[in-house]
Amino acid sequence: MASITPVLMKGIGELNLREIDVYKTQGGYAQLERALRELASEDVVKMTDASVLRGRGGAGFPTGRKWQFLPNNGEPRYLVCNCDEAEPGTFKDHQLLEETPHQVIEGIAIGSYAIGCHHAFIYIRGEFKRGYEIFRDAVAQARAAGYIGKGICGSNYDLELTLHRGAGAYICGEETALLNSLEGRRGEPRLKPPFPAVKGLYQKPTVVNNVETLAYLPWILKNGPEWFKAVGTERSTGYKVVSISGHVNKPGNYEVALGTTIRELIEIAGGMRQGRKCVAVQPGGGSSACIFEEQLDVPFEYESLAEAGSMLGSGAMVVFDETTDFVKAAHSLVRFFAHESCGQCTPCREGGHWLQATLERILCGEGLESDIEILKSASHQLTGINLCPLGDSIEPFLGSVIHRFEDQFRSYIKQPRTKVAS
Amino acid sequence: MSKDVTVTIDGVSVTVPEGTLLVEAAKKVDHEIPVYCYHPKLGPAGLCRICLVEIEKMPKLQIACNTPVTDGMVVHTSSKNATEGRRAVLEFLLLNHPLDCPICDKGGECDLQDYVMAYGQGASRLADAKMHKPKAVDLGPTIVLDEERCILCLRCVRFDEIVTNEHSLRTEDRGAHAIIATATGEAYRSSFTGNVTELCPVGALTSKTYRFKSRPWDLHRTPTSCLQCSVGCRLNIDERHGEVLRTMSDPDDAISDGWLCDRGRYNIGFYHDERRITTPLLRTGEQWVQISWDEAIEQWAASLKESAAADGPQSIGVLGGGRLLNEEAFLLRHLCDALGVKNVDWRTGRQRFASHAARNSLAELENAGVIVTHGRPPSQMAPILDLRIRKAVSHNGARLISFGELGADAFVAEKHANTLDELRAALPAQYERIAFVSDGVSRPLDAALAGLRDELAAAGKQIVSYVLGEQPNARGADALGLVPSGGGLDARGMLEAARDGKLRTLAIFGANPMLRFPDRALVEAALARVPFTIVSELFMTQTAERANVILPARGPFEKTGTTTNVAGEILDIRAGLHAPEGTLADGEMFAVLADALGIALPDVHAIRLAIESAVGNGLQRDEAQPPKPRASTMGLIIRHIEHIFSGGGTSAFDAHIAALRPGPALLVARGEAGLEDGDVVDVVAVDGTRLDKLTVRTGNRIARGNVFVIDGLPEAPANLFADGAAVSIENVRKVREPVEA
Hints:
Helix content of chain B: 10-25%
Number of domains of chain A: 3
Number of domains of chain B: 5
Oligomer: heterodimer
Number of strands of chain A: 9
Strand content of chain A: 5-15%
């Protein structure tokens, strides 16, 4: 059976990695120093590219390739670390921010060096007040130690880091909405193209990378891209912090090699609560479709999950046992997305609200026979035609469970209940 | 030169320049792709999703508004998938739409109605109650907003951001609860609010003046040019049962760029105001007596003959003309020539010159690298020209420099230069074209700038120049010779001569010198002394009140002819309204008078040719400057400033725009004399002239030592004071009690 492999999470729970001295005894900042001393920025890009590190925020786009989209037009470039982690079920960046802030800082600095950015930003979810304070103190330590500011580590490389707290909107995790918010505008996604790589923050070339993605950079530099590529599959390389929650005995963050199966991940998380049966798993955050009990041997990596009809997403796995009321679960997620819709584009704004209202009516015992078809077709027709991925996130869970557990939905309509055992 | 690409849309090939948006390419082959949020002037926003099309080799439907065509692209606008996508979007849009088309002003010209008819489904599948949102929201003095009808295309918000740069509208709340609101929560005030009603693809934004007035198919439309300022925007008169109900812009107009200002759009209520004068009036003692046109013309002709016989044509004066059409101005000049009258002057306000002899276009302004303004702000004199300035600065990277004591006040970044040296220093290193925008008031300032213009022209810079007219056809009146000739008197000379008893007949056409001439006391003394004053007017203005005979005139929508705009373009004016019975156009009055005096008039072709050849030859004349104001001994100098809605005629007699008119105000630099916004003060000159109860408004760009009063307000005439007179401020009534130290 596969096991956990702490890389980013190494030392968490044992050492106080918030202290820069402790972090340095574990080899912290050595890779930043080495990069500045020995490596050209292109070398860092090449190593990252060679590692096939993919974005850990949700989209899974290869990081090295993303960096190479930046135009060489002499304009200033910005790196923005996305720590607006708000995808339902996801809590990995939160822990990294709080427990190993220096690792995140080092990742940001290495990434910035790689792309030639002299002013990086980190956008921290508003609710992460404690994480923000810990990170802020860590940045102060890093600045005092010469890892942020002018002439880092005695080199001629300058890097400023600005911390920005969000105000609680899920949509600001979408990179262009995040950039708008960072600029002081309303947090709503921008029309693409132009992409942030061309016109991002303040209309300048910008890279937005997830916390976890950046945190892997020191390790890739330290152990080499081959080490990272040695685990996982050809296109899904390296390790991943998986947030496991739901009906398991030990919910939490577990760092594993990509390719570990869902079944193994459930075991790693202590197995099913009260020995019950797993009937469905949502493997990639609230935006992903469920896979079901017969698919538990699917490897947890990008391609296999896509093939199984879902996605790896942010790597947040929610496990459901047979006691689950999927009507309520679906309603919970639909309500979340409808509430978090920025309202800019039609299908997401109107469709989300429609689905929510319909599910609420069903839950109240006022469901109609035609509602099943509405839920299926309305969710289907709002998908794939939105401005940003939020709109396309409404359908996957609802669509997958309504097809699988249609009887649960029908039973609400046929035998109206006002109270349902949860 | 970009290369061309060929794209196939529904089987039809079209070749367009690379980078053309698919939605525009489709127009070329008459395959209209429906849009809501996209607008050619606002660009793509990608919000409404109605423009979904299927593009071969792309897995998902794409929005045509943000897809640049590429060579060989094959597009299907009505394939099964595209049709289904469009149907889905329309279903979503109608879910919570109130479907109150029967009482909606937009019905009949609504894009939602039209596209649902064309591409939507018959019945709604919504089983729940529709969401409710605020209806009839009072967004500001001009606009009412129905949040339920709104489809959140954000054209209005983007207009206020992209075009006006004022950023006063925004989205509030989010998701299905999103609504349109003003950014500050205060009323939506701007000089361009009416445009959002035209941009709104549904019936969400409506004009207060047009709400529930008509159906679009019942309106009769006449295209004309706006005569509210010297820009001359193309404008459509929408009339029903003899009444103008609304005015609409022309999206393709090269002059207006497709926009209208609120003065041009909304100042139309006066046409049907019951206070209009519709019969000639003769003053007998304190009474006005209605007389026939025959009698009026007889009186006029008799006065002219008697004056000429007694003291020669130099005892006759003609004032005004900046409000006349070209043809009318020509006829007036022709009559003067025939009678030997040399005392003619259209300059009854502050403007001294009307052009720099160059014909140009307004589009040239937006491509200037530098724009220099001096004098009263274009935002108040010529709002649509001001939008071009904003466009040049915010989109084309131009630098705006205001020169002299007034800022350009244009909602975009602006540098200010007090001296020519500062102006030179403020010029950027690189630019090809420089535009000068002035209000035509100060000859000395203009002479100073002329030196700079010559210098820049010699250095290879392209110079364009715009002199904003105080009156719509100032440039035409000037070109057509409504100026003193052969030793004739100018306006001030005539008024002084009248005051001194040397004028026997004074005719005033298209002018209100009592309110606009910068020396009200002189006008009053002159009008009191002249034995016979004849005035053509629509309303009983301060000038008309002092006439002997008033001729009831027609308004711009009631006349046909041409006008000359700020750029020297000759624009068509077409009557879209039947004038009230009893009124005549000024030109008709001149023709009748000519007939009575036995003066032959040239035919229409000759007039047109004369206009064509005259316009463009801006005249440079030497002339007496108005007397220099005395230097201030009291610390403050009073200056006159323009306001888009000021005026004593069509603007004062229009209930439509009553809420937009400024109250009597005193504009001062922030902190001047301890004054605060809202304080009420009296302004008194050395000679005791005073304006009472002015409300203080403070600003950052006002030079210290200057106080500004809005010109052209009948209730508080700024021209009681000479521009530049020394004044003091008295009787300060504080809005807030001073805090005890």
